[in-house]
Amino acid sequence: MKFTRLISVTIFFFNCTFLLSQTKVSEFKYDDFKTPEYCGSACHTDIYQQWKQSLMAKAYTHEWDEIEYFKLALPHSETDERVAEVKAGCNGCHSPLAYVTGDIPPKKPSFNTRANESVSCEVCHSIVSFTGEVPYNHNYIMRPGKTKYSTRKSEIQSPVHEIVKSDLLRSGDFCGVCHNEKSPFGVWVKSTHLEWKEGPYFREGVQCQDCHMPKTEMRSASMGPVYKDMRTHIFHGAHDKSKLRGVIELKIYPDIDKVEPGEVVKFTVLLYNQKTGHKFPTGSVEDRIVWLHVEAIDSKNNKYHLPVDKKGFEGEEYTISSNALAYQDLGVALNIPDFKGLERDAISPGNRIFRMPYFDPEGQMTIQQWYTASLGVDYRIGPRETKVETFTFRIPDNCPPGPLKVTATINYKLLVESVGKFLGVPPSEYETIVINEQSTEIEILP
Ligand code: HEC
Ligand code: HEC
Ligand code: HEC
Ligand code: HEC
Questions:
Q1: Choosing a second label site near 232 at 20 to 30 A (CA), which of 52, 185, 191, 419?
Q2: 14 pLDDT exceeds 50?
């Protein structure tokens, strides 16, 4: 009898966690949360310094985030009913403390309020669960307080808090609460977690944490023991050149080694995604541009740019660089009537672009993910996928005899340059980063 009662009480509490609703705007006070400095200055010193360098420590203060929220999304949310929810919503992921305390809109980063803490220790270590089946749009359930949720039962007790072991923090689903996003039009505009879930790494049990929080021998707290498998908090991603370099491996080869001027050679380029657990690019796909540039150089140093061969799939025009204009919807938030748009790609024409275009309700390409009503062709490179591109090149009649060196380069920008310049975003956000490079040589006969 007693035993059944115990079981039903347990089941009742168990059910409760699942009935709990998503943490709401204004549910808590800032005082319910400790600052990252409190956690990091005397105890978790290494973890704190690692986290501080990561983009998640700057999710609210990073310049491009400030520009996009205050110049575009916030004014837009106040004039268009359809996107009104993003006024609070952006902060659900970029400044969770501002969101759960109802500090909406938060003061700008220069006011140095607690909104600046961004995705802090307390945010992640207070999350107990999420609502529904799929983690997305900050559907986390938070329980701040003396209990911290983590994955290790420490050998020694912390003097200031209790630790409860949580399997959620060990899983990639935990990251999905912020790394999946649906726009107010019901479109998946960020799907890093969903891409991982349908890819090879999830099937093999490799979590986000394994690639973004690699384990090493370290102390988790200054007074605690050294663990052989301590979780670092580096969270290195697209803003880290060391993480980006070599993500895609390249091979280029010709179909014939020796040719005369006037003859045609076909170069094949293989692109193998060797490193990412999701697609490349992922996350803020509306901003990113990844492209393959192929160039030949003859024995007299003349250069020839080789345009990619068309494949003929639907929507391919968005995957080959051109002089087309796009982003006309920036005129809506900025109140510029009849804004004619900006250069869509702002790179040399004829290159293959690995991207997925986002479209606004009028069908024009947009970088405003909250104003995205549909998506175009998904021509990104999946985890462990190999894409093949060909370049058919007629050797110019006046090409001098000797070696012809052909180089394939895969380049990357976090943000399309035309957009970055127009909005006054710091140039580091649109500098060109070389991901990889590979050459081959053929011989031009006299
Ligand atoms: C509470 C929301 C939240 C959670 C939970 C979260 N993230 Fe993030 N993450 C963000 C936001 C917001 C950014 C973007 C910051 C910016 O744009 O300034 C970000 C950025 C990142 C970046 C850097 C991207 C870049 O461009 O360099 C990585 C890597 C990352 N997160 C990994 C993870 C992993 C792994 C997990 C799970 C262990 C996780 N995140 C959990 C909100 C979250
Ligand atoms: C984006 C979410 C996120 C943020 C921000 C974050 N952590 Fe963590 N932390 C995690 C996750 C996830 C784990 C467990 C990973 C695992 O075991 O797979 C973890 C593990 C830990 C551990 C245990 C490490 C071990 O291996 O025993 C400590 C201690 C810790 N975090 C402290 C901090 C402190 C202090 C901060 C702030 C400076 C912080 N965390 C910020 C997500 C986060
Ligand atoms: C097999 C290793 C691996 C796994 C697993 C993995 N990632 Fe990544 N991730 C990478 C690499 C490499 C990059 C850098 C290239 C890039 O930007 O995609 C990256 C980039 C990122 C970025 C930056 C993307 C951008 O454009 O800003 C984020 C955010 C991110 N990962 C989050 C996650 C999350 C969340 C998961 C789990 C759902 C995850 N990663 C799983 C390797 C991995
Ligand atoms: C569901 C969580 C979520 C919501 C809601 C959200 N973001 Fe983000 N945002 C992220 C994550 C995660 C990243 C970084 C990951 C990446 O690029 O892979 C990010 C990245 C960004 C970036 C940086 C892009 C770059 O180049 O690194 C900007 C700017 C940004 N968000 C602005 C906004 C604005 C403005 C809103 C509201 C309209 C918003 N975000 C809503 C999670 C969110």
A1: 191
A2: no
